[in-house]
Amino acid sequence: MTAQTTPTPPFRDPQLPLAKRIDDLLQRLTLDERIAFLHQFAPAVDRLGVAAFRTGQEALHGVAWMGPATVFPQAVGLGATWNDDLVRRVGETVSTEVRAMRARDDRVGLNVWSPTVNLLRHPLWGRNEEGYSEDPKLTSAIATAYTRGLRGDHPTYWRTAPVLKHWLAHNNETDRSTTSSSVRPRVLHEYDLRAFRETVEAGAVAGVMPAYNLVNGRPNHVSPYLAEQLRRWTEEPLLVCSDAGAPSNLVDSEHYFDTHEEATAASLRAGVDSFTDHGTESATMTGRIQGALDKGLLTEDDIDEAVRRQLSVRFRLGEFDADTDPYAGLTDFDTPAHRTLAREAAEQAVVLLKNEGDLLPLAADTRIAVVGLLADECKLDWYSGTLLHRSTPLEGLYDRFGAERVTFAEGVDRVRLRALSTGAFVSVPEAAGADDEVRGAEGALDPALLAGRTDLPPLTTDADGTELALADWGGGVLTFRAPDGRYLSVAEDGYLRASADQPGGWIVQETFSLEPSGSHGNGHLLKHTGTGRYVTVGADGVKVADENPEIFEIMVIQPGEEAVTRVAAEADVVLVVAGNDPHINGRETEDRTGLALPAHQERLLRAARAANPNTALVLVSAYPYAVDPADLPAVLWTAHGGQAAGTALARVLAGDVSPAGRLPQTWYAADADLPDLLDYDVIGGRQTYLYFEGTPLFPFGHGLSYAEFAYENLVAHPGDGALTVSFTVTNTGAVTADEVAQLYVRAVDPSVPRPRRELVGHRRVALAPGASTELTFRLPLSVLEFWDVAHGTWHLEPGAYELLAGASSEDIRLRTTVAVEGEPVAPRPVVTHGLDAADFDEQRGTEIVDRTKVSGDAVTPTDGGSGELIFRNCDFGAGITSVEVEVSGSGTVEFSLVDGPVLATLTPERPTGDPYAYTTPRTDVSAAGVHDVHLRLRGPLRLAHVGFSG
């Protein structure tokens, strides 16, 4: 007898079409199993041999949260390289390490939540470090490069499956789960959607993650744009993964739905496929899905469609084809090539902002003083992996110039804390035999759950105390560090210990603030930021508590300026390394309050400059600062550069590498130049380099070199639906260097507000002294289009367009003008189509809100006051005799022609308490021909549409 073999199920046959394999597996799953797949942690189906699967592996600039991995520069630093090829190679390396780490730890997931393509519209956004640029073209170019690297180039299988974050118009952490971004259609299409669209259309994206915020009054997790926009850009199935806890927010904080079953059903129908909520506990979410199904809010088809999209990702990742998956055996991890690439990326991210008198590069025999709170730091952020290698600016300079030529002063204030109740000083006990533990070294699916150390003795008080290093990071946020390098931290038991290698965690436990004591003129209460409690002193040690706060005298043993002044005076050149700690004052959940450098670091900078005029400022930060460079001969900026940051910086300072990073966002001169953080109207608010009319501190695209470059021979040829543009760049300097050539365009005489100039191409090229290269760009005419709100479509306007080539958005070297054919913008056909309220040309005092909970927009006065809308070029034809408005709520709508009297006032007969219950008051009015329409809205009403008849 011959034993029968079990036939291979079709879903395991790699020769079959993907759709057939997915359908076969889908029909084998029970309804309960399909529902279970919709949670982030999808369980195994043992009877089918299907493994458990997790959506979401953070990999923004290296594998994050899962222990040691190669750490590259922050995303904003990768954006500053303006180098698509480099970023693609970084993506390849990160995804290779994901595969290698998964081979030894199956907690590591292959569905990576990266990159972030939110535009860096506002420099005070707490998550500035996560984005690439304020410009949609540059953002999409860098994001496309990174996703191609993450995906791999195999036609069938993906190395990892990247998910773009965070859909949509998300640039504020303040009240991020309840604020609504008011985004007019032109800003939506020309700005916010564009970075996502061009990246998705490039073909290496597996999905997107909706953001916590609302857009036009509707939560992103029920956004109609997922279906109306995202899924129309590609024929590939895209997986939409919710952000953590966002499904519950729809009811708990946003109060958009009354029940979780309604909210879950609405999310699923809108296009969310995987629910990230309640951590690893899936029963709550699957129960809500089952409840929605039982109530008829969902169908099995809705569930199947979501599961099908998830399975598509799993098949493409080779989960069911171990023998044919070309990436299954990858083991490359922390290789020499990976380390070299980390250094190359950090070098290319350095931006030279100013260099008067050729202070830089530094000669080999220069005596260097390196000072500042960041001088001997290699900071990580929330989305970093654990360092395998570490290089601080000080270490890099020691290695490059020799320790004998480099002196160091950190500039912290050396203090003792005296408890006024007893006169004793806070003391750090000996911790003999304690492990030198690094936070997160073992990896964690949710690092927010990592607890502080309790294996070390709590702080005590005694007659002598311990001298602590005090740093003020701005806004009165302080850290204290013990002599052994550990930061004072508070664990779950409430005791203070010198236990943290760095400030960090979802809720930082290493920061404090001082509050004046009313009873003691020189005394202060010490408040712990993480718990909101005050520090107390008891017989069992120093801890935080709700009562009996201790009053402390802060005794300054040595101000930081003293050490800085001493070493600065003895050096040839001083390097002040200043910037931010990525876990303090500007991070996820916390926006910045201003652009200024923290006062402590300003003190150090002034002290260094007073002691030595040859002082250069080196900014290491996740965002721009408003600094005064007037009396500084040199200024550099780099994002936190990862494991090779210090080595890279030293090589740039020494001239081993000529700096060629370029600013990916505008650096503004003052807070007064900034719009409100919640003003998302980049057009009306004149935001970013595209529209900003002031003088920036440093413009978008700016960056200097140790070489000089000449631009020549700009030529533009229209034809075949495109412009072919070329020009020549020559290195006229004495050193080999990279140049980032930038090509911009502007409409010379547009009919609507257009960008002052807009990036349409860039190229980073390496040139030896005297060498030239011709750069050619083929620009489809679509890059000249704008979103025509009058007709709801893209429009190419005829006329002159100026092409500008140069080294930054303001350093334009060459110009030429081309005439482009197109169709003049037709007047609005208001008689046949009316006016959708959100399709205004100009507005004042209004915001866009949701017309219904499913789709559509309406407009309401801000805070229920009054607002105005203007609609240009409205064609009333031979004439109209009446006007009708679709409104909800209460108030009035006044209709007039611009610069004319009010022709009609419309008021709902019965005010509606339901914002989605609309009425349509009508009144007589007379108008003919083409006019600009002015609407004034008064009171808490929503205007959805204006109709005309005659």
Structure report:
- This protein has 950 residues and is an alpha+beta fold.
- It has 18 helices and 49 strands.
- It has a six-stranded mixed β-sheet with strand order 1-2-4-5-7-10. It has a six-stranded mixed β-sheet with strand order 11-29-28-27-12-14, with helices on both faces.
- β45 and β46 form a beta hairpin.
- α12 crosses α16 and α14 packs parallel to α15.
- The termini are far apart.
- The model has no long low-confidence stretch (mean pLDDT 96).
Gyration radius, in Å: 30 Å
Largest sheet features: 6 strands, mixed
Helix/strand structural class? alpha+beta
Spatial order of the strands in the main sheet? 1-2-4-5-7-10
| SS summary, helix count | 18
Count the E strands: 49
The general outline is globular
Unreliably modeled segments: none
Mean pLDDT: 96
Instruction: Bin the helical content.
Output: 10-25%
How much of the residues is beta strand, in percent? 25-35%
Terminal CA distance: 89 Å
How is this fold's topology laid out?
Elements: H1 18-28, H2 31-36, E1 41-42, E2 53-58, E3 68-69, H3 75-81, H4 84-104, E4 111-116, H5 136-151, E5 161-167, E6 180-181, H6 185-201, E7 207-210, E8 214-215, E9 218-219, H7 225-228, E10 239-240, H8 246-252, H9 260-270, H10 283-294, H11 300-316, H12 336-348, E11 351-355, E12 368-371, E13 386-387, H13 393-401, E14 406-409, E15 413-419, E16 425-427, E17 460-462, E18 468-472, E19 478-481, E20 487-490, E21 496-500, E22 512-516, E23 524-528, E24 534-538, E25 541-545, E26 551-558, H14 560-569, E27 573-579, H15 599-611, E28 615-620, E29 634-638, H16 645-654, H17 688-691, E30 709-719, E31 722-731, E32 737-747, E33 758-767, E34 772-780, E35 786-788, E36 793-795, E37 799-806, E38 812-820, H18 830-833, E39 835-836, E40 842-844, E41 846-850, E42 857-861, E43 866-875, E44 880-889, E45 892-897, E46 902-906, E47 922-927, E48 930-938, E49 941-949
Parallel strand pairs: 2-4, 3-13, 4-5, 5-7, 6-8, 7-10, 12-14, 12-27, 27-28, 28-29
Antiparallel strand pairs: 1-2, 8-9, 11-29, 15-18, 15-26, 16-17, 18-19, 20-21, 22-23, 23-26, 24-25, 30-31, 31-34, 32-33, 32-37, 35-36, 37-38, 39-49, 40-43, 41-42, 43-48, 44-47, 44-49, 45-46, 45-48
Helix pairs in contact: 1-11, 4-5, 4-12, 5-6, 8-9, 9-10, 12-16, 13-16, 14-15
